[in-house]
Amino acid sequence: MTEGVAGPGLRARGFVESQKLANPDSPRPVEPGAAPPPPERKTLSRWIPALGVIVAWVVVWYLTDGKDTLSLPGVARTALHDDLTEINNDLLAGRDTNPVMLFTGALADALRSLVEMMQGIFSKPNLPRPVPEIGWLGVTACSTYVALVVANWRIALLVLASFLSFGVLGFWEQSLDLLIITGISVVIAVVVGMPLAVLVGTSARANRAITVVLDVMQTMPTFVYLLPVVLFFGIGIPSAVVATLIYALPPIVRIAGFGIREVPTTTIEATDSAGQTYWQRLLKVQIPMARKTIIVGLNQTILAALSMATLASFVDGPGLGKPVLAGLRINDVGTAFVPGALIVVMAVMLDRTTTAASERAEKVARGGGGDPRTRRILLIGGAVVTIVAVYVSRTYVDLARFPENTLGSRIADVVNDVMDWITGTFSGATGAFKDAITNGLLNPMESVLAESPWYVSGLGIAALALVFGGLRAMITTIICLAGIWYFDLWHDAMITLNMALVGTVLVMILALVFGVWMARDRRVDLGIRPLLDAGQTIPPFVYLIPVLALFGPSRFTAIVAGIVYAAPAAIKLVADGVKAVSPTTIEAGRSTGQTTWQEITKVQLPMAKGSLVLATNQGLLYVLAMVVIGGLVGAGALGYDVVYGFSRSEAWGKGLAAGITIVLLGVMLDRITRAAADKRRDDPGPRRAFFVRLPIGPPK
Amino acid sequence: MRQPAMSTARSRGARLGVLAAVATLALSACGGGSIAKETEANEKKAAAAGGECGDLNMAVNPWVGYEASAYVVGTVAQDQLGCTVNYKELKEDVAWQGFGTGEVDVVIEDWGHPDLEKKFFEGKGDGTAMDFGPQGNIGIIGWFVPPWLAEEHPDILEWENLNKYAKEFATSESGGQGQFLGADPSYVQFDEAIVSNLDLDFKVVFSGSEAATIEAFRKAEENKEWVIGYWYEPQYFNAEVAMQRVALPPYETGCQDDPQTVACDYPQTELKKIVGTDWAESDSTAVDLVQNFTWTNDDQNVVAAYISSDGMSPEEAAAKWIEDNPDKVEAWLAQ
């Protein structure tokens, strides 16, 4: 049906890939393709004015050091913050009368009873029954069977193994809770998101408007909106579902909308000439033709939901996030590690299942799908086994409640021993490394950024935005800076910005080293990619503790956590970008006898510049998102303000102001880097590859 | 071609059926107790528990000592009164919001939150929460240094001498001044004001969480590093490393009323129980239990150490303490 669009060898691998699927004409998704303009000279010409701005800035800083920095002590607040706090108090006081609050309250009750009903069926004792309606054996059998139906036997085995690991490692109930929250959020995200995606895909104006909202939703660090969500939806399940929904909605709207928009106009015109209505066109042509991209969007939405549902444990959301958080509270890596690893297992399971399901759907649509008779037997046999399993799991306690064992706690002990050894052995070296980076890079940059008068820093940032991103980027930057100034947290914002910048520099160093290495050696790629996948999926709290043990409470600790969070995405982008450099270009270079070093620096990296800038963009946003969590480990600044506002009602307004400030910083950084990326290239490229959650999985 | 395929299919189907039957038998043989029996037992137990307890929504604030109190009360309520106990891991502020909606019934260890009392207590706020009396623990907040430091420089335990050592406390985070390790943002604290009002050459760097502070103290004691920070008692970690308190100008009534001008030490706090008004007026049998509950700092430290040092789950830790202290538990259950 869509021969050219979706070749059989291509797998749905995420947004960047989906662009490739949808644009067979533009040969490479990230790399600008053949013959980029000579980048060397352009780079030079941009860095000279930038250097000029920086030198002027440093001179002014030196002369005015410490004046008008707008610094505000950690637990101090301004009148504006108190006004914002009043909003919170008023809403809280009016929760029995305010119609909006009544509405969200009713919604919250509905969500709560829905989730509690599902918990009674799958995860929690449905009193007076001592166990859920369907025990572990039944749930495992059902899930395996579903995997068999929608995908294939290999995926069914994967699902079976995953569910067994939930139970064997001792987190059956929490795992099922996490799946329930994720599942409900995804269903709502699809119900709400698909109509929006159709709007985005069919109307240019709606696309522009919705994109702005999605940008904000995706820049806002997840921690920030937990605060207002709790205000409107209350503690626990409802807030967990709503926060997860907010985080999971953008991918499906963006990617499905993209898929619908990219259906070739010729096809639409051809079918229009047959006199079809709007609905016929939508349901018979656009959506079916965009199906593959829509599934990619669904996949991304599921993974986003999973990661946010984990974070929702901060507001007492049920699931695997809770034991992870408990481990953080008692400072026990091992306790947090096992549920953290199960989250990775779950992510891999969901990712592979949706991918395989879409492949199978594709095959069936093409008339493939294997021998129907064998399949029918398999399905009937599976159904019988499943029904039996459900029945016995409703009858016998041991088949309903997963038998206890000590494997999970033994693994936790081993992890703790390993961590103790690492921190005991290396904490001297890591301390020295921390001090070197802090004194050599972090502190000097922070002095200039945060200890200059605010108008000097503002001017400097705007000038750099002009140099790197052009006039439009500068205008956005000025608006964002004005907002930051208005919310009274300028000094903290500069410190946080500095942390994000230093973190991104380190991320890019890692991305260049590992990205190039992976691109040049497939075995390295195969070896490293699972680690990157795990780094992307594992909840940040898990590695917060060991990082803390190695580096102590400091800004650097937050930066390291940010690097762990951001590096996988950046490394993958660079690796894929470098890999995509056309082999003929490399061959041509080799024939002139260039060295490996020359090949990398003169050919591969310059030609992959588009993906380097994209990686920088993603790196900045990921690191910025993590810097908030850094408030928990002594990084201070905006992260601390958010945590502070979240935990003390009299400072609620300050927390909100800090949250908004982070969004403004994110939008600013995103616009500058994106404009810088666009400026470099003539082709349209993946301009909308904004804060994509990169797909996980082995290299192509 | 067709015929043999069909027969294979049929025989395979038959084989599957047999397999399923065998599996059912095998599983039922090893399946253990029957769920129907346990359901019946549960129903009987609920009926026999005398008076309905119903749900008990116990907030769990983020420090281990709190967790110890919460799970001990919760375990007693569950095992002896037949309550369904829901533990909700929440920060203090969020927990107080839940009294009004019935999402939270009990905050078992409150360190004093005047602003929250203003919002939620009868007479000052909407009346959804009420004070349920002291829970027996005495809270001590203050500035602490690791024991090795107190031993080698005994004069450091007086605040007047802190400036003398300020340079030693400097870190990469403190910009040339001494570093003072501030606490989790949700705790009651005035350290920035104290530092500036006593003219101390220190900068408050917030550790951000109990875990981060413990990690810093532990490392400092091991490697003889200079650390001073906000710390408190009851706290299980003091059994591992006996943190030493630095004397600040003594607390007098009212000296902490204006957060900006605080220049005195923290008072000793009688920790108390806060409960939802509606729940307290209900006929739940757990109301009396929570009202009667008191224990000592030592009791709490024992349970907290079970949880954090011995790696027990909070439920196990609570159950072990309850088993070891039947007389105390009995007193809470007396009418």
UniProtKB/TrEMBL annotation, chain A:
Cellular location(s): Cell membrane; Membrane
Matches recorded under InterPro entries: MetI-like (IPR000515), MetI-like_sf (IPR035906)
Topology relative to the membrane: Multi-pass membrane protein
Main location: membrane
Composition bias type Pro residues, residue spans: 26-38
Residue spans crossing the bilayer: 47-64, 153-172, 179-203, 223-249, 294-313, 333-350, 377-397, 454-487, 499-520, 540-567, 619-640, 652-672
Gene3D superfamilies (UniProt xref): MetI-like (1.10.3720.10)
Keywords: Cell membrane, Membrane, Transmembrane, Transmembrane helix, Transport
Protein name (record): ABC transporter permease
Species the sequence originates in: Nocardioides astragali
